[in-house]
Amino acid sequence: GVKLLLHGLCSNTTVKSLDLKGNNLRTVGAEALGKLLRQNKSIRSLILEWNNLGMWEEGFSFFCHGLGANNFLQRLDLRNNQINHQGAGELAMALKQNASLQELDLRWNNIGLLGGRALLNCLHSNKTLKRLELAGNNVPSDILKAVEQAMDHNQDRQTILSETQNRAYILSKEVLSLKDEKTKQFLDLMDTIDKQREEIARSGRMSAARVSQLQEALDEQHSIMNSLKAKLQMTEAALALSEQKVHNLGELLNATKEEQTSMAERHFTELQQQKQEGADREGKLLRDLSAASEKNLLLRNQVDELEKKCKIQQDQLFQVKQDLTNTTAELKLRAVQAEERLEMEKRRFKQSLEDMESLRLKEVDHMTQHIEASERSMQDRIQRLEAIRIALEEELSQVKAAALTERGQAEEELIKVRNQARLEEQQRLEHLEEKLRLMTESRDEAQNCCLKQKQMVAEAQAKANQLSLHADGLRRRLEELQQDLNSKEEEKVTEVNKVKVELQEQIGHLQAERTAQEGLREKIAALERQLKALSSNHREALLDKEGEISMLLEKLRMKEADISRMREEEAQRASFLQNAIMAYVQGSPLGAHGSRK
């Protein structure tokens, strides 16, 4: 029945305690118990009191082999089983192999001196057994004391091991918590770096949008300048047409002069009668000449005013150039300062990396990889920003060159217009002087031909009226041209003001970006300080823990050395006691009496 029961328990995984007290187990039962101990992994307590297992040597040896192969049983009760010194030797061999048994009860058996020595010797290799009961086995008190001391040593060792395991578990938990904190800090740093990248990308987009706006404004200015050039070409064409008309009028005047000379001989007699009328006409002509001279003076004053306005515009353009140069210089200085700050931040960051590399090589490798990647990205961004800055400087230089060229063209066009106006005025004055000369000559000649030239004078008056109308049209055209010039000047002033406002807005945006970059740098510095503080705290904690571990290791070494010394002393004492007992037994009268018998 026991065999069947134990065979069923071999595959059981729920039974943890088995009590077979007083069942008269024999060899078959002992063999079944050995098989159970080899296969079962759940039983922790086994009670075999009052079964006389020691009487069956083969079965008990099989049971001991199963006990040596088991690593799960913690309590074994073998009281009153008639175990002798041979069975104790088998148990000692099993205990050398077993590493889980903590309590063994061998009271009221027949172990004797040899069995006690065998069990004492096995305790040198077994370090898990905490309790060994040997009362009622005829074991000497010295061996019992030695067994108790060994049990005490095992208990101390196990308590120390449990404490060290607990401390190691606590330290592992702390290390894991520190690792989690570091990972969190690293993730926070990565998040801040990503945010900085997003902000830098946004700033790049904003700068690209602003550059596109500036390009659009420049294109609008170019279109405006092209329209002004077209208008100037139109005015030049109108002036050329007016010059052709003046030339045609001069030819007509020459033809009239020839006709007058031909008709002067014929109408000499008629001119004598019309002397008085000629004198009146001369007065009128003189009045007309005085009015024309006054008009010429007015035109000269207007030209002077135009020259003054041109000078004022030139001064304004010069001031705008100075403002542009100042703004470019300020931008360059700011770029240089930003580069220097970036270099300083890079140096500080490299120093912090070198400090972190001295702590642990593994963590520094990971951190250096991430930081090198971030540095490369930052360098790429810096290069991109420098390229954008260079492009902006090139665009500013192009704008300056275009402004200079446009200014030169405008000045040349103004000079051409002034020269043309002066030439026209000079030509008109020359024509008027020639007319005056001709009129004086014709007056002398017309005194003889006044009567004959009445009809011709009427035709000349009609032509003079036409010329006056044409002169009025030319004056109107000049006024229109002056109005166009004034409107162009106003447009130029408005455009210059717009450019100034746009530049001021750009400077304000750049200052805002600079402040944002400074805030980001301050955040980076604060994060670096936090990293340094955390790294220093981590170093101190690691140093403290390493010191505690070293102290614990030294204590363990000292205790192991004490245990080894105690073992050696106990072995020496046991050998001395054994020799003394043997000498006592051999030299005692009981031994001599037994030898005589």
UniProtKB/TrEMBL annotation:
Keywords tagged on the record: Coiled coil, Cytoplasm, Cytoskeleton
GO cellular component: centrosome; plasma membrane
Subcellular localization: Cytoplasm, Cytoskeleton, Microtubule organizing center, Centrosome
Spans through the membrane: none
Keyword Coiled coil (UniProt): yes
Keyword Coiled coil: yes
Pfam families: LRR_6 (PF13516)
Source organism superkingdom: Eukaryota
InterPro entries referenced in this protein's UniProt entry, alphabetically: Centro_Cilium_Assembly (IPR052116), Leu-rich_rpt (IPR001611), LRR_dom_sf (IPR032675)
Stretches assigned to coiled coil: 211-245, 289-569
PANTHER family tied to this protein: LEUCINE-RICH REPEAT-CONTAINING PROTEIN 45, NY-REN-58 ANTIGEN
Protein name: Leucine-rich repeat-containing protein 45
Organism: Spheniscus mendiculus (Galapagos penguin)
